[in-house]
């Protein structure tokens, strides 16, 4: 019970071969991880820049002024 059986060692060897074997799979994995972190940081900085940009004030319409300035139609002129 204190030591590992042959099957445990076989599983450990297979896992080690998958991680470190053939064309630097571990280095490719770490490179992809680093690119993901860089993309995340870039996205966060773009969000900060967008938040810092001064938004334009909301434009409102004064309905009474717009109604007074609008030309009257033929039917409204006939009613008056």
Summarize the structure.
This protein has helices at residues 6-20, 25-52, 63-69, 74-79. The protein is mainly alpha-helical and 80 residues long.
Keywords for this entry:
mainly alpha; 80 residues; 0% strand
3D architecture notes:
Helix content is 70%, strand content 0%. The protein is an all-alpha fold. The protein has a domain at 1-51.
Taking the sheet with the most strands, its summary is: none
Instruction: Estimate the strand proportion.
Output: under 5%
Overall morphology: rod-shaped
The N- to C-terminal Cα distance equals 104 Å
Strands, total number: 0
How big is the Rg? 35 Å
Number of helices: 4
Low-confidence stretches: none
Give the mean pLDDT: 76
Give helix % range: over 70%
Strand-and-helix sequence, N→C?
Answer: HHHH
Protein topology:
Blueprint: H1 6-20, H2 25-52, H3 63-69, H4 74-79
């Amino acid at each position: 019970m204190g030591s590992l059986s042959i099957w445990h060692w076989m599983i450990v060897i297979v896992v080690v071969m998958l991680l470190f074997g053939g064309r630097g799979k571990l280095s490719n994995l770490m490179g992809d991880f680093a690119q993901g972190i860089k993309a995340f940081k870039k996205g966060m900085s773009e969000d900060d820049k967008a938040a810092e940009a001064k938004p334009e004030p909301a434009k409102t319409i004064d309905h009474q002024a717009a109604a007074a300035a609008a030309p009257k139609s033929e039917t409204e002129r006939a009613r008056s």
